[in-house]
Design brief:
Elements lengths: L6 H4 L1 H16 L4 H15 L2 H13 L4 H6 L11 H14 L8 H10 L2 H23 L19 H5 L11
Helix pairs in contact: 2-8, 3-4, 3-6, 3-8, 6-7, 6-8
């Protein structure tokens, strides 16, 4: 598999906008461990190998348990996730698959039991962001395997992060 377009080079202003949303999500106050689970679950649903690789590595680097990473694909059938994480994962699945049945009122009501209005909007921004990154990486065939945790520089849009490239020539992100 070869990358198709180096989208970060072709549309740097678009990348800047995507990074802006990502930076907002990182500083919004939601738990970093939960955000990594959300990003990984959406990437699993979308089949984005690059993002699955990235968010598995980032979750491990943040201390996530291997057992939870392995079980994430079947999270509903395990006791490894707390109620807030379960609500976030259910919300992630519904928003990611919005074209298959929209987001049910019962799912919204359950999410609101665990998230304030702002938290739920921020969680949705996180889901919007990862789905956007997934679509870029899949469409333009970003090659998985070269990402290293810490490449993101804690979400700061600095020259080092911009210079970080994977073997497919795409800028590191998400």
């Amino acid at each position: 598999m070869k990358p198709r377009i180096q989208y970060g080079k072709v549309a740097p202003e678009g990348m800047k906008a995507m990074r802006g949303l990502e930076n907002y999500v990182r500083q919004c106050g939601l738990e970093g461990s939960m955000l990594e689970l959300v990003k990984l679950r959406a990437s699993q649903i979308n089949g984005c190998a690059y993002c699955i690789d990235m968010h598995t590595k980032d979750a491990r680097a943040q201390g996530e348990q291997e057992q939870r990473l392995y079980a994430l694909v079947a999270w509903q059938e395990t006791p490894f996730f707390n109620e807030r994480e379960r609500a976030a994962l259910a919300w992630t699945e519904a928003v990611t698959k919005v074209g298959e049945g929209h987001v049910a009122d019962s799912l919204y009501e359950n999410a609101r039991r665990y998230f304030s209005e702002k938290e739920l909007v921020d969680l949705t921004f996180a889901i919007v962001a990862i789905n956007g990154w997934n679509r870029l990486a899949i469409s333009f065939r970003t090659i998985p395997g070269s990402y290293n945790p810490g490449q993101q520089k804690d979400g700061k849009d600095n020259a080092d992060a911009q210079a970080s490239r994977n073997e497919g020539g795409q800028e590191a992100r998400v």
